[in-house]
Amino acid sequence: MIRCLAGWVTFLGATRITCKAVPHSCVVDALIYACRKEVPLLPQFLHDFVVGIDVASEFSYVAMLAPDGQLIRKPFRIDHNPAGFQHLLNILKIEEERLNSRPIFFVESTGIYHLPLFFFLRSNDLKGFVLNPLCVHSTKNFDIRKVKNDKKDAVAIAELAKTKDVKVSLVPDIPILSLRMLTREYFALADNLTDCKLRLSNDLYLLFPGFREVFKNPFSAGALTILKEYPSLQSLQTADLPKLASTVSKVARRSYGWAESKLRKLFEYAVMAESMGLASMALEEKLRIQIQTIENLEAAMAKIESNIRQHIQSDSFPKEFRNHIDLLDAMPGIGFLSAVTLIAEIGDFSLFKSPKAFAAFFGVDPTVKESGKFKGDRIHMSKRGTRLGRRILFTIAMASIRKTKTRAPINPVLKAYYEAKTVGKKKKVALGAVMHKVLHYIFAVLRDQKPYECRLPEDHRLHHMANPAA
């Protein structure tokens, strides 16, 4: 009630409405209505001791606002080292005693640079939040003068947190943050692996024409065994066919006849080596380096996956998150790494109160463009959420609409949904709708803590009528 009254006093003072302009009874009725509806009339941190921190890689600037909104002192710089962190903590303790108010600090999300300072302050029992850079950057035009520096950015962060009802986020605990960093590193290596394979595939057209026709997968164990020893048509001319066929058959785990037939086709191309292919020792060495890089990347990815599994099974990993991973892993179309990545990106699921908020976190919510009588008809994804999360959702959606080797759909409900959408929409638009539907499934599974059940819409309707509470 006090917060609502203070909000109305602030509103009336800002708009200079006197008691003559607004009848007393109207004000009272509005106050009662607002309090019954629990309308948040004031920003959450308006009367708190707020600290805004503009973070760089090696230092940060700090601005402090008192509960009354006054700037306590000029923004000051702290270095990112133990002495600098302790200096900031000492200043915050002094101001806390003077103001008799606990400080609440806010930092802009800057990748990894804000994490050491964030965890240091949080380990000293200080409450802190992370602001989205999009929200912080929206304040750059509040002042007409074109002045931007770290000091003003720190003040802007503090004022934004204090005077606006801005969305804030929490940094997850260290076990979940570690899992998130492992999964992101895994997919970063996967991207590097894809780039390296693409370059090697292009170089094969120069050095070894016809190789892609014999080996449809030039990155299989048998194909790479040949390329490491004989990376061009010219070098293959000196190869011992029986010995090489025996080696390839063992590595590829295929018969000797299969390996011999593949090599005979390559030897037929090698006869024309003088007129085909680009003979160059430098390019051959480049191909060998690419193969070595591919093997190193694959080994690194396997090592990270092993570390992820060990981290999840360790005693320090929260049991709740382990259960979430198991629930998602059991869903059709979602593999272990996809489930782990989604849970690592989501963090604390209890913060999401609705499927709409869940979809907005992943950036698959629709953009809205309306002004006056104009209403935009080209609706796109906002793509303002976790990029890796959307990538995983895309792969899950692609897997959900496929069929197994026996031609059975992996998820018949989503397969039918996708085919119905493609009747009047483009395939990518229909795939985006499948991503949105998958998110709703994931939200329901994590909310109810029950395994996913693949039901047709008719069966689901009958089940809901029989069990309204389910």
Secondary structure layout:
Layout: H1 2-15, H2 24-37, E1 49-55, E2 59-65, E3 76-79, H3 82-99, E4 103-108, H4 115-123, E5 127-131, H5 133-137, H6 150-163, E6 168-169, H7 174-207, H8 211-214, H9 221-229, H10 233-236, H11 241-252, H12 256-270, H13 281-313, H14 319-329, H15 336-346, H16 355-362, E7 370-371, E8 374-375, H17 387-400, H18 412-421, H19 427-448, H20 457-466
Parallel strand pairs: 1-4, 4-5
Antiparallel strand pairs: 1-2, 2-3, 5-6, 7-8
Secondary-structure element pattern, one letter each: HHEEEHEHEHHEHHHHHHHHHHEEHHHH
The strand order across the widest sheet is 3-2-1-4-5-6
Which oligomeric state applies? single chain
Question: Measured on Cα atoms, how large is the radius of gyration?
Answer: 30 Å
Largest sheet: 6 strands, mixed
Task: Please report the distance between the alpha carbons of the first and last residues.
Answer: 36 Å
Fraction in beta strands? 5-15%
Average pLDDT works out at: 84
Low confidence ranges: 1-40
Query: How helical, in percent, are the residues?
Result: 55-70%
Query: Total helix count?
Result: 20
Structural class: alpha/beta
Shape: globular
What's the total number of strands? 8
Textual characterization of the structure:
The chain is of the alpha/beta class and 470 residues long. Helix content is 58%, strand content 7%. It is built from 20 helices and 8 strands. It has helices at 2-15, 24-37, 82-99, 115-123, 133-137, 150-163, 174-207, 211-214, 221-229, 233-236, 241-252, 256-270, 281-313, 319-329, 336-346, 355-362, 387-400, 412-421, 427-448, 457-466, and strands spanning 49-55, 59-65, 76-79, 103-108, 127-131, 168-169, 370-371, 374-375. Strands 3-2-1-4-5-6 form a 6-stranded mixed beta sheet. Strand 1 and strand 2 (59-65) form a beta hairpin. Helix 7 packs antiparallel against helix 13 (281-313) and helix 11 packs across helix 12 (256-270). The longest helix has 34 residues, at 174-207. The radius of gyration is 30 Å and the shape is globular. It starts with a helix and ends with a helix. Mean pLDDT is 84; it is low at 1-40.
